[in-house]
Design a protein that fits this description.
mainly alpha
């Protein structure tokens, strides 16, 4: 291989010191950005749970329009996917996909009749306990 006159070919890579400096800079940037990013992640999960509850509420309303009632607590939300047995006017499935867990991995809680209306559909949030504030707050169909 010919090397042109005046051109020096450097076959060295990065030195260990240069790599450490870059890694320290990346670590500092991550420590500045991460605290601002993580609270938004929690709000995103709450927004996703609210959107899922709204979607399930629309499916429950379609079920009621066809059958004349909401699924009972015993039938649960599975009645939106498969005929709970013997329901004559059932015209489902009312959801294209199955029933997903809430964004924190717990199942949604469904009761019909509900304490706040014809049905109650809710998630206990990140802590999976009633009540709470922030990301631990309950997300429900009646709020």
């Amino acid at each position: 291989m010919k090397i042109r006159k005046g051109f020096v070919r450097n076959k060295k890579g990065f030195s260990l010191v240069e790599l450490l400096v870059v890694m320290v800079i990346i670590g500092l940037l991550a420590s500045l950005v991460a605290p601002k990013l993580f609270p938004k992640l929690g709000k995103g999960k709450q927004a996703a749970a609210k959107a899922q509850i709204e979607l399930y509420g629309e499916a429950l309303d379609h079920f009621r329009l066809d059958v004349g009632r909401y699924p009972t607590t015993q039938e649960g939300m599975n009645a939106l996917i498969a005929n709970p047995g013997g329901v004559a006017k059932w015209d489902g499935p009312y959801l294209k996909k199955g029933i997903a867990a809430d964004p924190w991995g717990a199942p949604y809680i469904y009761q019909s009749p509900g304490a706040h209306g014809d049905y109650d559909l809710y998630s206990y949030g990140r802590d999976a306990k009633p009540g709470g504030e922030g990301e631990d707050a309950d997300i429900s169909s009646w709020q």
